[in-house]
């Protein structure tokens, strides 16, 4: 489980960096600063760091959980609610700014990428 979490975290951070670059371009299309994409990446990274810091506790909890006793798993999940909310906040920012219409014509970041 520890190896799976490590590999998943590495892949997630790499994917987050690629998303951050694409999101910065989208923000520039709508005339907004690209630093907002850094904020979303930091929120996501903070979420992962919280989960990573509790990895030993997660692993030991998973070893003790049985089909008859889910209370320990639910107790562990309740400790990770804050991390989940940080991750969802990052996703919400990407959705909100992603659907925001592009600014018509040229903005301070240059001409629109596709002429309409």
Could you say which overall geometry the principal axes of the C-alpha atoms support? elongated
- Strands, total number: 0
What does the average pLDDT come to? 85
The number of helical elements comes to: 5
β-sheet strand percentage: under 5%
What string gives the helices and strands in order? HHHHH
Unreliable stretches: none
Sheet/helix structural class: mainly alpha
The main pleated sheet reads as: none
Q: In total, how many domains does the architecture comprise?
A: 1
Q: How large, in whole angstroms, is the Cα Rg?
A: 19 Å
The level of helicity is over 70%
- N→C terminal distance: 49 Å
The gist of it:
Helices cover 73% and strands 0% of the residues. It has 116 residues and is mainly α. The protein has one domain (2-99).
Describe the model.
This protein has one domain (2-99). It has helices at 2-29, 35-53, 55-64, 71-79, 81-99. It has 116 residues and is mainly α.
Task: Describe this protein with a few key phrases.
single chain; 116 residues; mainly alpha; 5 helices; elongated
Question: Which SSEs are present, and which pair or pack?
Answer:
Blueprint: H1 2-29, H2 35-53, H3 55-64, H4 71-79, H5 81-99
Helix pairs in contact: 1-2, 2-5
């Amino acid at each position: 489980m520890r190896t799976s979490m490590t590999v998943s975290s590495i892949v997630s951070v790499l994917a987050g960096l690629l998303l951050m670059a694409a999101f910065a371009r989208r923000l520039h299309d709508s005339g907004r600063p690209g630093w907002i994409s850094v904020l979303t990446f930091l929120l996501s990274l903070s979420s992962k760091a919280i989960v990573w810091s509790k990895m030993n506790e997660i692993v030991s909890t998973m070893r003790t959980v049985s089909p008859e006793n889910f209370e320990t798993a639910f107790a562990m999940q309740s400790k990770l609610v804050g991390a989940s909310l940080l991750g969802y906040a990052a996703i919400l920012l990407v959705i909100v700014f992603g659907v925001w219409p592009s600014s018509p014509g040229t903005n301070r970041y240059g001409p629109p990428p596709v002429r309409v």
